[in-house]
Amino acid sequence: FFEFPEDLIIQGKEPVLWPLWFRAALPGSISLYVTIYYEVGDSSVIMRYRTLRMSYNFEVMPSLDVSFQISRCPTRLREFLVRMDLINKTSSQSFEVHQLSCVGYNWLIAMLQPVNIPSPILAGQALSCFFKLQDGIKATISKEDVISNVDSRESDVRLDARVNNEDLFDVSKSPVADFHRYERLQEGTSDQSHSGTVDFILISHRHRSGPSTEFTDHSRFFSHHACHCSIASGGPLYWLMDGPRTIYHDFSSSFCEINMSLRIHNALDAPISVRINTSDSSPSTSHQSHPTGVASENQSGWHDISLTNEIKVTSDPLGITRSARQLPANSVAPYIWCGSSSTNIQLVPLSTMEVPVQISVFTPGTYDISNYQLHWKLLQSEGEAPDADSRPSSGTYQGQSFYLTVLQST
């Protein structure tokens, strides 16, 4: 129910505007019944209270069909690519999109490219828009990435070039917040946000031709809600090899040592242990590309000598001993991992850790630094029995491709 202010007095023949927001869950014919209770100001009247009953019939028609697809960014650990597909389902109406907002867990959103969305969206027209979504806790938007159509909250994007940031709806306040809460209840999801999900709210309105001041009218709008959109890819680990992509080095003086790092994120709500195993590649499996003009019978690179079997790599500063690696008899790998061949770490729930790694490169070329494995295991509390019907408690992932180009410096 709605309660009017106590000091509200309606004079004779004076109209009163009541801001009534209405949202239909499904298309179709809907009957709205309203009962208004009021009292007469004349104290001499015996029966002071009155009730006014009204009924309205609405025909709710489809407007915009909205769907979202989320995929993980291959070059950034906590950044995602969002594709929004719009379809105008009407036969004659045109619509304009006002803003897109994300709800829950401090998400930041911006357009992938600062482009103007075609307006209006005509009847039967389809449109796709792309955005980048970032975790507001784990990541920040750099100054170079700030886009002009993101407001100070960074959770709203204006989609109409004629709309100022001051004209954006605050989706945390009524009526949009009330609509969204009931939408989540209708879909059977809780009202609590989760780091693995994000909600989207698209606000649109009918196309109106007229002065620009009409575009700031918030009395008539449409809100489209997409709840509990998952960003998880189904695995407990997200990781990313971080390091230079191109390096210049003078190989006539020494080999090249390259420092990189593995950033590993635990996507589970439970602690896990991760073991990183590295293995040196061989020329038959590496993606080395030799400089143009080198004959096949005289290829550059390291070749076997009598001392090959005596090569050993010392242990890392943590004291983890690395066993001697016997390289193939016909040739030596063009690059090797330095330090320990096995590193163990522990990650608390929803945390990220950076593990430094290093390789040594002996000849120019392009290499795929993916010859490593991540072995994860769920850590259980002391005395806790494993649940046979629950999710997997361990697993192994092969390293993702990371291409590094090393060039001879001049």
From TrEMBL:
Residues 277-299 are annotated as: Disordered. InterPro entries: Ig_TPPC8_C (IPR057651), TRAPP_III_complex_Trs85 (IPR024420). This is TPPC8 C-terminal Ig-like domain-containing protein. GO terms for cellular component: TRAPPIII protein complex. Residues 244-374 form the TPPC8 C-terminal Ig-like domain. Pfam families: Ig_TPPC8_C (PF24542). Transmembrane segments: none annotated. The lineage of its organism: Eukaryota, Viridiplantae, Streptophyta, Embryophyta, Tracheophyta. It comes from the Eukaryota. Residues 278-292 have a biased composition (Low complexity). It comes from Opuntia streptacantha.
